[in-house]
Structures are given as C-alpha cells and as structure tokens.
Amino acid sequence: MNKNVLIVDDEKEIVELIDLYLRDKGYTIEKAFNGLDALEIIKNKSIDLAIVDIMIPGIDGYSLIKEIRMISNIPIIIVSAKIEGIDKILGLNIGADDYITKPFDPLELLARVNALFRRIYFLEDEEKSREIEVGDLVLDKSRGSISKRGKELLLTFKEFKLLEAFMENKNKVLTKKSLFEKVWNEEYLYDDNLIMVHISNLRDKIEDDNKNPKYIKTIRGIGYRFEDEKSKRK
C-alpha cells in the first residue's frame, strides 16, 4: 500500500486502535496527540490522508483542518464524539471529506480509508480523456487538479470528484441520488445536507459569483446541472 496516514487524537487508546487496523493493511502511520504537532508533521512529511479528532489540545481539529486546507488537498476524515448535525456540517464546510462519530467500528473506518484511496488513484489504463475543459475550467484527471483561467484551485477530494462528475456530464441533469452514489460510492439515504454543503463549497471556489452561478445550476426538486454555455450555443 505504501501510503502515509496521519492520525490526530489526544486519546492514545484511539490512536493505537486505528494504528493497529491500518498498519495491518499496509499503511504507514504517523501519530500526533495535539493539533500543533499534527501541523508540523503535515508541513514536514509526505502525508496522503489525515484522520482528525475535533477536540484536541494545542489547536482544535477545526482550526487544524483549516490550516491543512491552506497548503494541501489531501483527504481528511473527522472522527469525533460530536454527534450533532451542525458539527458534521461545519466539519465538511471547512474541508473534511468524511465524518465518523465515536464510538466507531474500526472496520468501517478502514473501509472508508480504503475507499478514499481507491477513488483517488486513477487506473493507468483508464480509457477516458485525462483532461476535461468546460468554460474557464480545466480538470486534469491524471494530476487530480483543477484550474480556472490558468490558476490552480485547491479542492478537497470530494469536491474534485463532484466537479469531475459534473464536467463529465455537462448540460445533463444529475439527481442528488446519482451524485451521491458517484462521489460517496454508497447508497443514497436522503442526506441532502451533505450534498448541499459540498455543492456550496464547490461554488465558492469555481464560480465568479456563487449567488448567481454560471456553472452549477440548481434544478429545484431534482438535483443539479453543470452548464457549458459554449456547447449549448453550437
């Protein structure tokens, strides 16, 4: 596997439990028990994915994620005892890709880590075009990057996968169910807030005016459509 995972939690037992399950599957593990040490690891070592608790000393998990998002688009999974919906929405809003509440099943966490890595690294023999261009946006699938007017944008993994689904299906209406199953690779359970938060964050990054979006159009009661004005005029 040879992927480096950072575990950030002030509960040593939790860290050791996650370490046990991930190391058994071939992951290399870095550990931090506070936010400041975690940030130093992120800045100085090659980390492929971070698992972050919210209530940690030094700087809290929310602040840590904000700092990470300023320098990296690595996948981030929050594992927290905070179970309120507002906590989950806040975590996703600031850049987390997934949110698991404590107590958790280590096998579920392992499955989510594996799923994120499977969807990040593209197959070398993939037949689809590596680059998709719509309007001012260019999505490079081989590099996992997106640029707007030549300037690279920093997207989370889930935001990138959402944009990829949109750009591959430009001018088509995509239901919330189809988007959820494409991006989260799970059965849709009517978690509208999860999709809406990611759509809102994506609009903030790709639209000139997120209140009057040029690309991502809401189709009320159905889902969304990603518009390519150039192709529509042909």
From TrEMBL:
Species of provenance: Clostridium collagenovorans DSM 3089
Q: What PANTHER family has UniProt attached to this entry? A: REGULATOR OF RPOS, RESPONSE REGULATOR SAER
The question of whether rRNA processing is a record keyword is answered with no
Job of this protein: May play the central regulatory role in sporulation. It may be an element of the effector pathway responsible for the activation of sporulation genes in response to nutritional stress. Spo0A may act in concert with spo0H (a sigma factor) to control the expression of some genes that are critical to the sporulation process.
Q: What is the lineage of its organism?
A: Bacteria, Bacillati, Bacillota, Clostridia, Eubacteriales
Keywords attached to this Swiss-Prot or TrEMBL record, sorted alphabetically, are: DNA-binding, Phosphoprotein, Transcription, Transcription regulation, Two-component regulatory system
What the entry lists under PROSITE patterns is as follows: OMPR_PHOB, RESPONSE_REGULATORY
Q: Quote the DNA-binding region ranges, renumbered to this chain.
A: 129-228
Report the residue ranges that make up the OmpR/PhoB-type domain in this protein: 129-228
Q: Can you say what this protein is called?
A: Stage 0 sporulation protein A homolog
> Matching SUPFAM superfamilies, A to Z?
C-terminal effector domain of the bipartite response regulators, CheY-like
Q: Which InterPro entries match?
A: CheY-like_superfamily, OmpR/PhoB-type_DNA-bd, Sig_transdc_resp-reg_C-effctor, Sig_transdc_resp-reg_receiver, WalR-like, WH-like_DNA-bd_sf
User: What Gene Ontology cellular-component terms does the record carry?
Assistant: cytosol; protein-DNA complex
Q: Which residues form the Response regulatory domain?
A: 4-117
The Swiss-Prot or TrEMBL record annotates one GO molecular function as:
transcription cis-regulatory region binding
Indicate where the modification 4-aspartylphosphate is found in the sequence: 53
Tell me the superkingdom of the source.
Answer: Bacteria
Which processes are annotated in GO (biological process)? regulation of DNA-templated transcription
